[in-house]
Amino acid sequence: MPWPELILFFFLIALIYSSAGFGGGSSYLAVLALYELPYTAIRSTALLCNIAVVSQSTLTYHRNGLVPWGRALPLVLTSVPMAFIGGMRPLHARTFYLLLGSALLLAAVLMAWRLRRGELQAAPTLPRWSSPLIGAGIGLLSGLVGIGGGIFLSPVLHLTGWDGPRRIAATTSLFILLNSAAGLVGQVLNPDFQFEAALTLWLVLAVLAGGMAGTRFTIHKASPAAIRGITAVLIFLVAVRLLWRHLV
Fold this sequence. Notes:
This protein is mainly α. It has helices at 4-18, 25-32, 39-63, 69-88, 93-117, 130-145, 150-159, 165-188, 197-215, 225-247. The chain has one domain.
């Protein structure tokens, strides 16, 4: 039986993130990194939990006609193969934790910048040719560290006025789902792949419950800026701790 507090953490993360259209992968990684788990098993566990949450969200958005398929596909088509490549790449433990800490630190900065600028603030729309480049870059980083990439994509789309907040959330959810699946397949083919079956099962059940509860509020709720602010602080603190432990 896994740690009860870990199950509770994952339930709460899924509840918070799904209400904002995210999967919670970065926070799953942040929490798992603080426990005595093999680092090679952390990425696969986080990705499976991510998939469990955003698969529900994506289906809900699609049923409500909020997924802008024409604009989302250029992002997804380049991100998925790069997430697969990133997931296949073996990493040494120290390299993994330094990359994870750097990615979490970047995510915290982007989220804080987004909150500072304002979620609905108008900004120049990204040129059409930039979408595949953004998708590829975020996809590779996502596959390497074991997240869906939505925590990087969403602030970029909001800050550039890509679309309305609900359509951005729908696009982010789709992006996370497909990248997480591609990254997981890549990790299965990775010679360092490791899987903690019993623990992962309990955590997936926890995030499914949290995700189902949070998704009920996704379509009709305003953006939970306060929750994202708290999450940004949490991710920032864990990122600093990881970088400090593995750089010093």
